[in-house]
Amino acid sequence: GRTQKPSVFLFSASSDGESVGNCPFCQRLFMILMLKGTKFTLTTVDMKRAPHLLKDVAPGAQPPFLLYNKELKTDTNKIEEFLEEALASPEYPKLCCRYKESNNAGEDVFLKFSAVIKNPNPAFNERLWKKFYSTLEKLNTYLETPLPYELDQNPDVSESLRRFLDGDTLTLADCNLLPKLHVVKVVCQEYCDYDISGCELRGLTRYLENAATQDEFRYTCPPDSEILFAYKSVAKYQKTKEEHGRKSLKTPGNCR
């Protein structure tokens, strides 16, 4: 039989203390715990109103953080490593990637998106949008390129049909990237009239569609309203397609 189950509490940020807030790092750990299949308690915390609730648990810490058998963990990357080690196979599924390149796929998308959405100077928009779009193209290329295991199965395959970054099951790399891509998708669609999963980026579109079928992703996504609220103050810089500088992109903003 199984050994005694660990006691796991995940503390996540929230704007109202109830719904899961706009925090890709919180969602990343939420997804990992769901994929591991261990029981855990999710506590959402409005840091503006209730930091006193946490002063005994994790003084000075910002969500997300984890209590594992009463031991406090506060660094997201270290929590991920710890969970992969503590909740190990064969009892729990292994979530690390087969191919190290999968861990780095899409790593600069969120950074370039942030540069676009927070840019107050229209003169820089075109250049920033091009840089952002090139990160989407790079991620799309990775998703469309067959991995070694696919070539082993069929040496003639020219385009990958795998469901996720590293294969047909979600891994730690997906738990890291998908929450960020979700923020990018929601904000771009609402404030920039731009759909990152539309148009000719077939690999990226397939990836997001497959993710949307997975409970571990769907059930951990914050409400769109939480994401849009978090970006409302900076999104005022994004007005028309011309001001975005997106008119020069291969993919028009209204492409669906």
Automatic annotation (TrEMBL):
Keywords: Chloride, Chloride channel, Cytoplasm, Ion channel, Ion transport, Membrane, Oxidoreductase, Transmembrane, Transmembrane helix, Transport, Voltage-gated channel. The keyword Lipoprotein does not apply. It catalyses: chloride(in) = chloride(out). GO terms for cellular component: chloride channel complex; cytoplasm. Residues 11-90 form the CLIC N-terminal domain. It comes from Takifugu rubripes (Japanese pufferfish). It comes from the Eukaryota. It is a single-pass membrane protein. Signal peptide: none annotated. InterPro entries: CLIC, CLIC_N, Glutathione-S-Trfase_C_sf, Thioredoxin-like_sf. Pfam families: CLIC-like_N (PF22441), GST_C_2 (PF13410). One of its GO terms (molecular function) is chloride channel activity. Belongs to the chloride channel CLIC family. This is Chloride intracellular channel 3. It is found in: Cytoplasm; Membrane.
